[in-house]
Amino acid sequence: MADITYTAVATSTAEGRNGGRATSDDGALDITLAVPKALGGAGGGSNPEQLFAAGWASCFVGAVRRVAAAKKVTPKDLAVVAEVTLHHDTERDEFRLSAALHLEASGIDQQTADELVAGAHLICPYSKTTRGNIEVELDATVA
Fold this sequence. Notes:
Blueprint: E1 10-12, E2 21-24, E3 30-32, H1 48-71, E4 76-89, E5 94-106, H2 110-123, H3 125-130, E6 135-142
Parallel strand pairs: 5-6
Antiparallel strand pairs: 1-2, 2-3, 4-5
Helix pairs in contact: 1-2
């Protein structure tokens, strides 16, 4: 078993995604949750899919930097855009997620960018956690 490096603690209250609040134990996170307008809700707050996408994008960009350092390359203007999609299987009345991770970088060539994405997907904790559980598309764009 690996040593514990960090444990995040967050609480969601009330109606969860439908008007609840999500807070972290250290007070750094304190947001209102709302069903997005795209799903027929009022909007005006964040939702679990946005939070998951933000976390994965943040983690993945760190993994890209780690892989780049190991390859001794220095990308510039590095960004990861994570798209997390909620799907509803109406026959089973079940929900599932899919994701797309897009690397945007400059200062490297396309082949290197593709290698960074592939390598990051192997080591990113979010990618490891979801591997085999959800569909994930990966791509890279070099400016």
